[in-house]
Amino acid sequence: MSETLLSVKNLTLDIPTGSGTLHAVRGIDFDVRRGETLSIVGESGSGKSLTSLAVMGLLGKTIKRSADEIRFADIDLLKARKRVMRDLRGNRIAMIFQEPMTSLNPAYTIGDQLTEALLLHRKVSRAAALARAVELLEKVGITAAASRLSQYPHQLSGGLRQRVMIAMALMCEPDLLIADEPTTALDVTIQAQILRLLVDLTTEMNMAMILITHDLGVVARVADKVAVMYAGELVETGPATEVFAAPSHPYTRGLLRCIPQPGKTARGAALGTIAGIVPSLVGEVTGCAFRTRCAHAIPACRDPIPQRGDASHAFRCVFADGALSEEGKVA
Amino acid sequence: MLTFILKRLGLALLVAFTVSFISFSLLFLSGDPAAALAGETASGEDVEALRRLYGFDRPMLVQYGEWLFSALRGDFGESYYFKLPVASLIADRLQITMTLGVCGIVFALVTAVPLGVVAAIRPNSLIDRVALFLSVAGQAMPSFWFGLILIVVFAIQLGWLPPSGAASWKHFIMPTIVLGYYAMPAIMRLTRAGMLDVLNSDFIRTARAKGAGETRVLFKHALRNAIIPVVSLAAVQMGFMLGGSIVVESVFALHGAGYLAWESIARNDLPTVQALILVFSMFYIVFTFIADVLNAWLDPRMRSA
Amino acid sequence: MTDAADPLAREIRGPSPQQMLKSRALSHKGLIFGMSVVVLLVLVALLAPVLAPHDPYEQSLMTRMVPPVFMGGTWEHPLGTDHLGRDYLSRLIYGARVSLMIGAIAALISGVIGTAMGVAAGYFGGKVDAFVMFLINVRLAMPVVLVALAVVAILGGSLTVVICVLGLLLWDRFAVVMRASTLQISRRDYIAAAQVIGASTPRILLTEIMPNVVNNLIVIVTLEMAHAILLEAALSFLGLGVQPPTPSWGLMVSEGKNMMLFEPWLVLIPGVVLFVLVLAINLMGDGLRDVTAPEGRS
């Protein structure tokens, strides 16, 4: 097995608000190896995007970040100076954002924006940078790549812009690519193409990828590992195949019931829903955050929750089997 | 872009035409321009003579037509008071007003834009509060009073600057500050709001994710976008400022076009007043036209449209 | 399910909109300051005959240019007397009437004109909108001070003329803002819903559009009132606004200007009062905007 590229231990993010501290992310651990795709799945507001921005060091000034460890290759990102972080960003760690429509600067051409990272981090000529830009635009499937360089973002469709964003992220051949909901804003037909493209590129370039999404269908197709996030906590992590085959946490099972699965979901059967709403994370949060929506919650859910399973497939629940046996009774 | 310019030009011409009609007809408000010109003590015959001399006895539209055609050829008639062609009278005085206008807008820009940028980078900081105070105070400060205070302090008490006149560049310092201060609040607020807006946008995050440094993010990525509306505001403000020069020029006894306007109004010099209203309006129309074209050219989204 | 006392299960509920409005208003220092000063000056203007120690028109050649108390004068004339021996404090107090009246009525007139134009343009769009935009362009192209001066000079400088001229000149911002807000509102679904159930146009304008743009309207009224007060002062300063012996702050600055070298307080006092009033009205307007449209704030 290849070396660990990024390792995050006990990451906590607090946001001070008018009515108290919002505990947006609480003590999460995950790691990614070279060539591996980790998918962080969760609802909107579960803290996925904040987690990725925390790794990049791009959190807003008001957000407090603390962790036992955030290590990228042999660099301690917790202690890294601004200068070191800047050298990493866009160079060894690149990021693709959710909104291709607004993530490109309207005042500059595609060519200017594509070459910027390369010119910042490498000693290359502008001509060489432009050549590399054309090469990558072709790689991400953009036709007439050379003529795109002088175009402005508003002249491109959403799908094209997201391809440009991907090309832009790959300019310096990063070791780690963080893709935050890269397909959410796109048409369904384009979504599949972009996703395929990302997977192919990670394999081809031997990159690690963190794919952030709320779409389990996406995860099932591309991820090696899955981390399920709920209200600022990772409730279950493990190899994608295992998590899909044998989901251990009640929340994961709830999520999987929400999507139709060929062969498993009976014709005409209603899809599942998870009742209730995401809890407020302002003020002190203890125990399992899912207990307000969990059918099997017991008073002990308010106490600290033990980690179950093994190092590769882990989950947090008061029930040793993640209340799987309880589920039979309820149903 | 060309269609846009042509459309905009058509609008400008239409506005200019309407303004010319209004500025001409304004002076018929009194009912009888001849009587107004002759003054209260004049006899009926005097008024009648004046009426015929200046052609006030003909229909108003005919008079307007004649006036407009001469105006298009640069002939605004003769000043009642100065007994000189209005056009050359205004041309002589415009130099001072233009100098003042350019100095004023430059002063406003070089103070307001940096203040707005810093205020946006550090919201609620000391500089932000100072900038906000300056802009709020600037909007409430009567410019004639501000000018007089400057004269009392810098010309009379300290003796650093000449109180009035236009003999040297030193004479222009205080008028520039007073006129520029008038445009500052709007420019500063727009720069600050624009920067705040842009700094929160997704593409700034993209720039940071590429590893761009703060200076690069601020100036290359943010300011380039935030400055677009400021440029057009500055051109509009320039138009307003020339119109506002009447107050500043009278406070500092600068004999520019604004001062001329004040003199002519006080002396019932109708042709000069008509011509000045038209000239100042034309400046505004030209500046806003330039502003819109500049805006379209600076913004790639409009350039290719 | 867990019991109701679970802190995580508590309902996420904030204060009501009215409560939030009230608390935002009370914590907005600019608004509180501006409003207090404006209320104070309105009271002073209303109670002028009671408050003024002297007749503002009474001249006394024996007591000309008496300095104010803080410059060695007496309490007989707390702010001194002007070049005709008139009590400066009394003239200031009566001057508040002039400024506030001109500001309020001019803003009202231009408010009615501008709102009608703006709402019509925003609601009907098309040709109406194009025509209103054209009128706004024409109006903006006319140099306000110059046109106002010329018209006042032609018609004669009475209070009524100054008020009417300013009222007829300052409608542009009303039209621009009302047009934008109406445009925004009339695209909402509930306007379409009202049209679908057959509500008449006047009814839609009055019951659906106006309540939603009235906040913006109030803000513009205050800002234009300040604008009108400043313009009146400038016109009067230039000798072509309110005519003597009416006490107007702009006129007082103008009259004091000639003695500025020796008695700078003659210029300083009316200027400061004018500045404070306009500042207060502007702060009130900005505050109202912040309080009623918090999302528009940075």
From TrEMBL, chain A:
Gene3D superfamilies: P-loop containing nucleotide triphosphate hydrolases. Keywords: ATP-binding, Cell membrane, Membrane, Nucleotide-binding, Transport. The keyword Membrane applies. It comes from the Bacteria. GO terms for molecular function: ATP binding; ATP hydrolysis activity. It is a peripheral membrane protein. SMART domains: AAA (SM00382). It comes from Primorskyibacter sedentarius. CDD domains: ABC_NikE_OppD_transporters (cd03257). This is Peptide/nickel transport system ATP-binding protein. The keyword Protein biosynthesis does not apply. Residues 6-256 form the ABC transporter domain.
TrEMBL record, chain B:
The chain crosses the membrane at residues 94-118, 130-160, 172-191, 226-255, 275-298. Its main location: membrane. Residues 94-291 form the ABC transmembrane type-1 domain. InterPro entries: BPD_transp_1_N, MetI-like, MetI-like_sf. One of its GO terms (cellular component) is plasma membrane. Keywords: Cell membrane, Membrane, Transmembrane, Transmembrane helix, Transport. It is a multi-pass membrane protein. It is found in: Cell membrane. GO terms for biological process: transmembrane transport. Belongs to the binding-protein-dependent transport system permease family. This is Peptide/nickel transport system permease protein. The lineage of its organism: Bacteria, Pseudomonadati, Pseudomonadota, Alphaproteobacteria, Rhodobacterales.
Automatic annotation (TrEMBL), chain C:
It holds the Pfam family BPD_transp_1. The keyword Protein transport applies. It is found in: Cell membrane. The chain crosses the membrane at residues 30-52, 98-124, 144-171, 213-242, 262-281. This is Peptide/nickel transport system permease protein. GO terms for cellular component: plasma membrane. It comes from the Bacteria. The keyword Transmembrane helix applies. Keywords: Cell membrane, Membrane, Peptide transport, Protein transport, Transmembrane, Transmembrane helix, Transport. InterPro entries: BP-dependent_transpt_permease, MetI-like, MetI-like_sf, OppC_N.
